[in-house]
Input
Amino acid sequence: MTPAEWLWIPVTVWAAFAQTLRNAAQRRLIETLGTLGATLVRFLYGLPFAALWLAVVHGASGDGLPAPNAAFAAWVSLGAVSQMVATALLLQVMAERNFALGVAYSKTEIVQVAIFGLAFLGDPITAAAAFAIACGTVGVLLLAPADRARPIRSLVAGWAARPARLGLACGACFALSAVGVRGAALALGAPFLIAAAYTLLAAQLLQTLLLGGWLAWRDAAVIARVFRAWRASLFAGFMGAAASAGWFTAMAIEPVAHVRTLGLVELLFSAAVSRRYFRERMTGLEIAGVVLLMLGVVIVSLLR
Output
């Protein structure tokens, strides 16, 4: 295997780390901008950095800019819009009475992304990858169970509840978003780095226009607050663009199921921060979840 084929591993880990920092920055902005305003920050303030990244890749590699085509437009639209719908569904899940159940079901994203990747892109699922995905899924559910006393029973028994259906739809949209990103990069037929950077800029531009336009129509005051908070928003925008650049690059190299499974290391970063800075102790159930999660990450990285 060439070094370029292994590049997706450190790039994915970087994306997960950058996403952790972006989430922390966005949480602070929610108090002043609201959820949708803080979400817009991710796209609007990330847009200049996405453009800069494309310029750097273009200049350093010497590769010409890709020529967009109908297939690229369809895939990048699927990826951008699915991500926005998934975020809206996740917000709705959190507004439901039994939001924990819905969030738990949304974690089935890595299973759904494997299925969609196989169906739409022909990405293969090896036995090792399937086992890694299963370990990662169960590990996530143990770390964030719907019912800590009976995690598996509550998950199985609650599948017909409205929060569970919303959670499944949320996971499906996140999975479709990942597949759309990979499909768009592949449709360009360009070297993976320039294809990923070009796809990132196109997706963020579309998301900025769609969400910014909707907010301008429904609540223009939010747009004004977003511009006033530019100093605090720049970091969130930068880390958002950095995380997306990592995800998009990794998905241009490797099947999305492998990337999203390895990306679960984000939860390990969160657990480490919780333990180190907040002195929070982990339960036996959470330790089992971390072990399964680490097992899935190791398998998908080395054996797949």
Q: What stands out?
A: Residues 8-44 form the longest helix (37 residues).
